[in-house]
Amino acid sequence: AQSVTQLDSHVSVSEGTPVLLRCNYSSSYSPSLFWYVQHPNKGLQLLLKYTSAATLVKGINGFEAEFKKSETSFHLTKPSAHMSDAAEYFCVVSTNDYKLSFGAGTTVTVRA
Amino acid sequence: DAGVIQSPRHEVTEMGQEVTLRCKPISGHNSLFWYRQTMMRGLELLIYFNNNVPIDDSGMPEDRFSAKMPNASFSTLKIQPSEPRDSAVYFCASSAASEAFFGQGTRLTVV
């Protein structure tokens, strides 16, 4: 069985400050992990993915995430938030059968 | 490639009517997923196809929902009869390996 827990349902940051979105997972197998972003009234766009290569993964728009097996975590960070980062972010885990399990999502608000 | 294509983008229908949502996956992808997104329950997996075969349909809410994938380039999700509680955004996604690509979604409103 696999599952994902996003520890914050809502994160609010000021423009130009760091963003941290927390994700913990559980999986019976070696997982693949992803972060997706969804802007209002849009589909889901892949930000980055971890598939058992480098544990620090860089994605689009300046985001990166670090896979920590000992902590079963895959937190998403960005050094400096932009207004355009306001969106909902989903942490996702996938096992060998390609079934995706989504976290509940974290809504990011960026204050000017 | 144009990505995953869903149609229609918006659908408004009356309770009791049949609704058919369509999806064209990315060419070469062998996995296809239908998801439903609501404010109350977030993203829910409805059904998962691999090589056109339904592998897991445990997320299909009830018998009013059915999904088909007659070939590798087309899938449908049908609701018959539709009810107001079916109002949601329905996403189709396809995958060749571990990474899934999502369509823009169909916003369904049942009145």
Write the layout of secondary structure elements.
The complex is a heterodimer of chains A (about 110) and B (about 110).
Chain A: E1 2-6, E2 10-14, E3 19-21, E4 23-27, E5 32-38, E6 44-50, E7 56-58, E8 64-68, E9 73-78, E10 87-94, E11 100-102, E12 106-111
Parallel strand pairs in A: 2-12
Antiparallel strand pairs in A: 1-4, 3-9, 5-6, 5-10, 7-8, 8-9, 10-11, 10-12
Chain B: E1 5-7, E2 10-13, E3 19-24, E4 31-38, E5 42-50, E6 53-56, E7 65-71, E8 74-79, E9 88-95, E10 100-102, E11 106-110
Parallel strand pairs in B: 2-11
Antiparallel strand pairs in B: 1-3, 3-8, 4-5, 4-9, 5-6, 7-8, 9-10, 9-11
Please tell me about this protein's structure.
The complex is a heterodimer of chains A (112) and B (111). In chain A, strands 2, 5, 6, 10, 11 and 12 form a 6-stranded mixed sheet that branches. A 4-stranded antiparallel sheet of chain A has the order 3-9-8-7, with no helix packed on it. In chain A, strands 1-4 form a two-stranded antiparallel ribbon. Helices cover 0% and strands 56% of the residues of chain A. By secondary structure, chain A is mainly β. Chain A is globular, with a radius of gyration of 13 Å. Chain A has strands at 2-6, 10-14, 19-21, 23-27, 32-38, 44-50, 56-58, 64-68, 73-78, 87-94, 100-102, 106-111. In chain A, 38% of the residues are buried. In chain A, strand 7 (56-58) and strand 8 (64-68) form a beta hairpin. Chain B is an all-beta fold and 111 residues long. In chain B, 0% of the residues lie in helices and 57% in strands. In chain B, strands 2, 4, 5, 6, 9, 10 and 11 form a 7-stranded mixed sheet that branches. In chain B, strands 1-3-8-7 form a 4-stranded antiparallel sheet, with no helix packed on it. In chain B, strand 7 and strand 8 (74-79) form a beta hairpin. Chain A binds chain B through residues 32, 34, 36, 42-46, 49, 51, 90, 94, 97-100, 102, 104-105, and chain B through 31, 33, 42-43, 45, 48, 50, 55-56, 91, 93, 95, 97-105.
